Amino acid sequence: MAGRVTPAAPVRVTSLTAYPVKSLGGAWLAAAEVEERGLRGDRRWAVVDPDGTKVTAREEHALLGLRAKPLPDGAVRLLSPEGDPIEVAPPRDAAPVAVRFSGQDEARPAGAEADAWLSERIGRPLRLVWQDDETHRPIRPEMGGLAGERNSLSDAAPLHVTSEASLRRLNDWVTETALERGEQPGEPLGHDRFRPNVVVEGGEPFAEDSWVGARIGDVPFRATMVCDRCVMTTIDRATGESAKEPIRSLARHRTWAGATWFGIRLTPVLPIASGAVIRLGDEVVPLLAQDPG
């Protein structure tokens, strides 16, 4: 059974971010409407190669240098450090094309103009696709999903949360590791390495590991899993270069089940109230599993 536990110091939202296109930079928000598959406009678009295989920043680091801003009615503005931006409307009437995502085998193509914009900047043929409103991409049971829950094009669950306290502890470990190896510590890592939708302040480092859910403002969420981390976190967003951190330090301190872990994944509790919104400064009330004794 889960019970509401109020921490000693209030936990609050310090950052909200939507990433309209998977692997591109996102947009900071003051408030975000919550839908079944997470924040409105978050990860509803993705990049694929000509045969429909997804292309992420794991393979093409340059994607992280592009940015996507959500616009009304599901549209998106794509921005690059060089050249003009482009606005793309959801291709609701386009015939679906085959794609290769876990739990989803087709999506709607954005069209030649968007494809050319992406291809020119990344230097290979690419396509932009959109997850339409009718697509039901389930959260996989092995990722903590329950019947009826659905996901955007994010990896495992609709909402990703990280903690300021946990990042401070991780940066301490990164510094310790560097000094032990005779290396000069670099600049502290930011949350952008982990691409969270929500950043919270308050509570102890890694307290979020034990959440079974949370109420953010007035919106309830259920925890699906702690978030396993991949090499994408080692890519410097400014330079596109890869390094060893934070995976090296997480491997020393946060390894179990053959993976490294940082942050948690949440999904909205269904049904969602009409007009559900979370905002900067909202209080976050964790739900913890009660001790059966």
Indicate the low-confidence ranges by residue numbers.
Answer: none
The arrangement of helices and strands along the chain is EEEEEEEEEEEHEEHEEEHEEEE
Fraction of helical residues: 10-25%
Number of strands: 20
Assembly annotation: single chain
Largest sheet: 7 strands, mixed, barrel
Sheet-strand content, in percent, reads 25-35%
Strand order of the biggest β-sheet: 2-14-13-18-16-15-20
- CATH class value: Mainly Beta
CATH homologous superfamily identity: PK beta-barrel domain-like
Q: Any idea how many domains? A: 1
Domain MOSC: 126-287
Protein name: MOSC domain-containing protein
InterPro entries: MoCF_Sase_C, MOCOS_middle, Pyrv_Knase-like_insert_dom_sf
GO molecular function, one term: molybdenum ion binding
What's the quick description here?
With 293 residues, this protein is mainly beta. It is built from three helices and 20 strands. 12% of the residues lie in helices and 33% in strands.
Describe this structure in words.
The protein is mostly beta strands. It has one domain (2-289): PK beta-barrel domain-like (M1 Pyruvate Kinase, Domain 3, Beta Barrel), CATH 2.40.33.20. The protein is built from three helices and 20 strands. The protein has a seven-stranded mixed barrel with strand order 2-14-13-18-16-15-20. Strands 6-12-11-10 form a four-stranded antiparallel sheet. A three-stranded antiparallel sheet has the order 5-4-19, with no helix packed on it. Strand 13 (159-163), helix 2 and strand 14 (198-201) form a beta-alpha-beta unit. Helix 2 (164-180) crosses helix 3 (247-253). The chain starts with a strand and ends with a strand. The mean pLDDT is 94. Residues 126-287 form the MOSC domain. Pfam families: MOSC, MOSC_N. GO terms for molecular function: catalytic activity; molybdenum ion binding; pyridoxal phosphate binding. This is MOSC domain-containing protein. It comes from Humibacillus xanthopallidus.
